[in-house]
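*** Protein under study ***
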Amino acid sequence: MSLDARAVLIPAILSFIVGFGVWQYQENKYEAIIQAHRAEANQKLQDETMKLLEKERLIQSRIFDLENKYHESQQELSTLDAKYRQLVRDAGGLRDKGSGNCGDRSNAKSPSASGNNDSSSRVLSEEATDFLLRLTAEADYLREQVLLCQEWAKLMMAQ
């Protein structure tokens, strides 16, 4: 090998070694940056997951409370309905104050003719009474459902 070949080959080999070293340094540097970003992202993900799980636990707790409140109100409505039905039975049924004792409206207009002061009201049939009581119970039930939906919406809006 001649001196000219050595003069060219040695700087080329040194340049290759230095270039390779710089390339390794840059790769390690960027790998360290990427690892730091990954660690930061994983920490943020873990923090946000914990926050989300805490909110979910809170929501589940509130849902449980709402369901308990709803069931308690349904039991209270059932108890009140049973008491009301018993009161209606004890009173002899529901009365229609707008109708007379018989189908003839001319007697209903003159209570003094029959001698009965309560001739302006008539007891409804059992079927009509039962229908009205079921209808009011259903209205109470629907009211409770609407209240539950409103509570649920407030809960979701608060989150």
The mean pLDDT is 82. The CA atoms of residues 87 and 93 lie 8 Å apart. Helices lie at 3-90, 105-109, 111-114, 126-158.
